[in-house]
């Protein structure tokens, strides 16, 4: 496999500027503007809010911009932007919710594998870095097709509401 380089020297100025803004806190979001905090307080899990499960310290919601059907976000209820800020009970609840998410996705979708991960910080790919969260999503052999590869478009075979019903119905009790 050959790796091509595309040289774009002008990007170094942009990267330095974006890094400075991020480190200065200019991009930090507070609890009032955090979509995840709004979801944490949105009431009982339902098809309307796409919350699959809620505990005292953690909750699970369908990803509104999924990479695959059943793509879940697992996060603490409390607004924290780093794993090191979690209390021991929050860490335990978060990991338990990740494990239950894996079990629910395996039961609902029978995938060939799963991705479990966290993008910690904007530079690592976090779209919402102010509220730490894990991604848990089912994967299948050959699930990347020409639409993703050529057109940069994902074709989802079911709606978020249908995925919510599947995952909620398979949630461990």
Strand order of the largest sheet: 1-2-3-5-4
The stretches of 5 or more residues where confidence is low (pLDDT under 50) are none
Give the CATH topology: HIT family, subunit A
How large, in whole angstroms, is the Cα Rg?
Answer: 18 Å
Our measurement of the CA-to-CA distance between the termini, rounded to an integer number of angstroms, reads 47 Å
Shape: globular
Q: What is the count of distinct domains? A: 1
According to DSSP, the number of beta strands is 5
The name of the CATH superfamily reads HIT-like
Structural class estimated from helices and strands: alpha+beta
Order of helices and strands: HHEEEHEEHH
Helix proportion: 25-40%
CATH architectural label: 2-Layer Sandwich
Mean pLDDT: 84
Number of helices, where a helix is a run of at least 4 consecutive DSSP H or I residues: 5
CATH class: Alpha Beta
Please outline the major beta sheet: 5 strands, antiparallel
What amount of the residues lies in strands?
5-15%
Can you offer a commentary on this structure?
It is a single chain. This protein has a single domain (30-170), classed as HIT family, subunit A. It has 173 residues and is an alpha+beta fold. It has helices spanning 11-24, 35-40, 88-109, 146-151, 160-170; strands at residues 51-54, 58-62, 72-76, 113-117, 134-139. The radius of gyration is 18 Å and the shape is globular. A hairpin with a 3-residue loop joins strand 1 (51-54) and strand 2 (58-62). Helix 3 crosses helix 5. It contains five helices and five strands, in the order ααβββαββαα. 34% of the residues lie in helices and 14% in strands.
């Amino acid at each position: 496999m050959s790796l091509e380089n595309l040289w774009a020297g002008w990007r170094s100025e942009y990267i330095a500027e974006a890094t400075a803004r991020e480190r200065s806190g200019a991009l930090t979001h507070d609890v009032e503007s955090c979509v995840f905090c709004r979801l944490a307080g949105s009431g009982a899990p339902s098809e309307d809010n796409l919350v699959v499960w809620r505990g005292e310290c953690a909750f699970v919601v369908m990803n509104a911009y999924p990479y695959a059907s059943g793509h879940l976000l697992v996060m603490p209820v409390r607004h924290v932007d780093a794993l090191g800020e979690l209390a021991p009970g929050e860490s335990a609840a978060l990991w338990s919710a990740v494990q239950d998410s894996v079990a629910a996705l395996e039961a609902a979708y029978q995938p060939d594998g799963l991705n479990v991960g966290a993008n910690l910080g904007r530079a690592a790919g976090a779209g919402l870095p102010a509220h730490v969260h894990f991604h848990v999503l089912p994967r299948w052999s050959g699930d990347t097709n020409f639409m993703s590869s050529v057109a940069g478009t994902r074709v989802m075979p079911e709606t978020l509401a249908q995925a919510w019903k599947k995952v909620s119905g398979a949630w461990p009790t």
